[in-house]
Amino acid sequence: MRVLITGITGFAGSHLADYILKQHPETEVFGLVRWRSRRENILHIQDQVYLYEADLKDPTSLKKCLAEIQPDRIFHLAAQSFVPTSWTCPAETFAINAIGQINLFEAVLDLKITPKIHIAGSSEEYGMVYENEVPMKETNPLRPLSPYAVSKVSQDLLGWQYFKSYGLRTVRTRGFNHTGPRRGEVFICSNFAKQIAEIEKGKRKDVIFVGNLEARRDFTDVRDMVRGYWLSLEKGEEGEVYNIGSGRNHTMKEVLDMLLSLSRMNVKVEVDPARLRPSDVPVLLSDASKFVELTGWKPQIPFKKALEDLLEYWRERV
Ligand code: NDP
Predict the structure, then answer these.
(1) Ligand 1, residues 65, 77, 142: which to mutate, most atoms within 8 A of Cβ?
(2) What separation in Å is there between the alpha carbon of 63 and the centre of ligand 1?
(3) Which of 1, 98, 183, 256 is an S-S bond match for 190, by CB 3.0 to 4.6 Å?
(4) 170 in helix, strand or coil?
């Protein structure tokens, strides 16, 4: 089987490649890269995967790659994935996430290939929720609260529409937050962990800067999440959408406290107003029972272990 991962250089994409190479060695793994892509997340596997240059914003590049790769499955993970950047660059976020996915779909249609396609949607699509709407099911209303979230809703609905209109074999997931080693340093858990690692090495004063600590998020280790992505194409029904999340959430204050308890130093905490968002989703909590009943998926790695491994990752890098 030939599997294409868009976003293979990213956080989840690189872990997905690791998972497939280890657990499904009969699979050939292909990945899309851009000429300036940072390769550090895939350096250890670059001899085991086939990399092709393409940009989601460039239909020609996508079509050429797909024609050569002829994938049986596509995991579409590439995206502008950082919520704050979606406020500063909303059009770019939309161009990559929504239009980029149209480009990918149209290339598949033009080439008359029939891969099963996973779309990495996000819990951010649910956005504003009322107390009586938690935990969130796939049937919850989508009330996205950021340009990023709107772009993910677009990806999600395009996945459904191309299935209905053209029979494209899409399976959509709405992944709740995931973290672990290789998480980009701008993302909150990773940012806290990096600051702690820098303080431990004496590279910054003993103060950690934080944003909104009240937000509650449902965290899963990235290695569990990508196993879920694989299962979504193994067992997921075409045209369907599935939540993937642990069903347990923590405030960011609890996350910070867990990381601080792993720290080798005493660290002070200060709020940095620049880290507060124009509108923040207050609570995300998954009801993933539809996915769990279908696939038997369950998170196996405790959240604290994900944080330990993330902190260790940064200790080795700062
Ligand atoms: P990352 O930001 O770590 O990785 C993004 C990837 O997308 C990179 O490989 C990047 O390549 C690629 N990419 C960005 N723009 C383009 C483009 N124009 N053309 C081709 N490739 C591009 O994201 P994550 O791994 O965290 O997320 C993966 C997916 O999962 C995303 O769709 C995200 O929205 C979704 N998701 C993530 C969640 C999380 O908690 N991590 C939660 C729910 C959903 P390059 O190296 O060239 O920049």
Answers:
(1) 77
(2) 20
(3) 183
(4) strand
| pLDDT tens per residue across span 34-87 | 999 999 999 999 999 999 999 999 999 999 999 999 999 999 999 999 999 999
CATH class assigned to 2-178+221-244: alpha beta
Nearest ligand 1 atom, CA 36: 47
In 3D space, the residue among 8, 190, 184 whose CA is nearest the CA of residue 81 turns out to be 184
- Which helix or strand (DSSP H or E) is residue 107 part of? helix 100-111
Residues with CB under 6 A from ligand 1: 7, 9-13, 32, 34, 37-38, 55-57, 77-81, 96, 100, 120, 122, 175, 177-178, 184
14 closest CA partner among 174, 194, 222:
222
Distance CA(245)–CA(257), nearest Å, equals 22
| Residue 251: alpha-carbon gap to chain centroid | 19
Pick the CATH number of 183-217+248-279+300-315 from 3.40.50.1010, 1.10.10.10, 3.30.460.80, 3.90.25.10: 3.90.25.10
